[in-house]
Amino acid sequence: MLPNLPAKQPRIVWLDVLRLCAIFMVICIHCSDPFNVSPEARSNPEFNLWGGIYGSFLRPCVPLFVMITGILLLPVKMSFEDFYKKRLLRIAVPFLLWSVLYNLFPWLTGVLGLPQSTMSDVFAYAPIDASQSFSDAIKNIALIPFQFNVYTVPMWYLYMLIGLYLYMPFFSFWVEQATVRQKKIFLMFWSFSLFLPYAYSFFSPNLLGVSAWNTFGTLYYFAGFNGYLLLGNYLVNDVKEWKWCKTIILSLPVFAIGYIATYIGFKTMTANPECSEQEMELFFLYCSPNVALMTLAFFLVIRKVRVKSKRMILMLENITKCGLGIYMIHYFIVGLGYAIADALAIPVFLRIPVTAVIVFVICWVFVSACYKFAPKYSKWIFG
C-alpha cells in the first residue's frame, strides 16, 4: 500500500514489520464490519461485544501507513514532475482498474444468476437488494474520479493518498527547512485540531469561524492526515529511540488511554440503534486524539523490533512489495474468508482475526504468485 524503499537505501526492516501490522489491521477492520455496520448485527450481544473490542483496537492502521509515507518520502528529493509521475502513476492505474472491477461485480453476479443478496454477503455496506443492472454499474464507473461507493469502500484511502502525494512536494520544502521547534509547534496545532470532530458534535458545528457559508475554521490548515506525515518524519529524524523499558512503560498507558476512549465512545454512540453513520464512526475517526494516542504508542513499540532471520526479512520484503496489491483485492475476499470461517465453525470471539488471517494469506499468495510469474504486468495491475 505504501512506497518501497529506494534501491540504494539500506532496508529499514522494522518499517516492513510496521507495514505488515498495518496491512493486517486494515483487513481485520473490514472483517469486523459485518459485526458493526448494521443495527441488526449490533443487536447481537456477541457481535456487539467483539465488534467493539476488535474495531477499537484496529484504528491505528491507516495513520501508521501515512506515518511510513512521511518517513520514506519526506523531504521529497526529486522534481515535482518526477515525483508526480513516479508516485501518482504507480497508484492511479491499479486504483482505476480495481475500482472498475469492484463496480462491475454486481452486474456480473446478475449475469451468473446469483441473487441480489449476494452483494451484501460480499460487501458489508451493500444493501440486500443491490442493483445488478449494467447501466448502474456504468454510472458508478463514470463517477470513479469523484467518489467511491458501497462496493469500493476501501478505495477511500487511495483518494486520500493521491491528495497527500499532490501536497507533499509543497509541504516538503517547509519540512526540509523547518527546525525541530517549528515541527513541534505544527504538531501542537495539529493535536488541537484532532479534538474538533468531538467539539463539532457535542458543542456546536459552528466553532472557530465555521458557519453555513464557511467550512474552513481556524485550525483547518493544520488538520488532517498531513499531521501523521510530519509525525512519522519527526519521530524518526528528531527523536532519539528509547530503550525497551522506557518504551513499554510510556507506550502501554498511552495506548490504553486511547483504546479505552475509543471503545467506550463507540459503544456509547452505537447503544442507540438509530445512530447515524456519522455518529457510529465518530470515535473511530483516524484524525482524532484517541486514535492518535494508540497510533503513537504502537509506532514506538514496533520501532524497537529487530529482525535477524534472513528468511523473515525476505518474507517481509515480499509483503511490502505485494502490499498495495493485497489492499486492492482483499475486499473481494472478505466474504469468502467468512464463508471459510463459518464452515470451520470458528467461535465468534475469534471470527474476526481468523477470517483476517484467511483473507490475508489468500491475497498474499495470489499477488505474490502474479509478481513471480508475470512481474511486468503485475506492476501495473497491483502497483
Keywords:
17 helices, disordered N terminus
Walk me through what this model shows:
It is a single chain. This protein is mainly alpha-helical and 383 residues long. The chain is 70% helix and 0% strand. It has 17 helices and no strands. Helix 1 packs across helix 16, helix 5 packs across helix 17 and helix 16 crosses helix 17 (375-382). It is globular, with a radius of gyration of 21 Å. The N and C termini lie close together (8 Å).
Report the total helices: 17
> What about the largest sheet?
none
Proportion of helical residues: over 70%
Number of strands: 0
Mean pLDDT: 93
Low-confidence stretches: 1-7
Element string (H = helix, E = strand): HHHHHHHHHHHHHHHHH
What percentage of amino acids are in beta strands? under 5%
What's the Cα radius of gyration? 21 Å
Overall form: globular
Distance from first to last alpha carbon: 8 Å
Helix-and-strand structural type: mainly alpha
Layout of helices and strands:
Elements lengths: L12 H24 L2 H4 L2 H13 L3 H13 L6 H32 L6 H5 L11 H9 L13 H22 L2 H14 L2 H7 L23 H13 L5 H27 L6 H5 L7 H14 L7 H34 L4 H26 L1 H8 L1
Helix pairs in contact: 1-3, 1-4, 1-15, 1-16, 3-12, 4-11, 5-7, 5-8, 5-15, 5-17, 9-11, 12-14, 15-16, 16-17
Summarize the structure.
The protein has helices at residues 13-36, 39-42, 45-57, 61-73, 80-111, 118-122, 134-142, 156-177, 180-193, 196-202, 226-238, 244-270, 277-281, 289-302, 310-343, 348-373, 375-382. The chain is mainly alpha-helical.
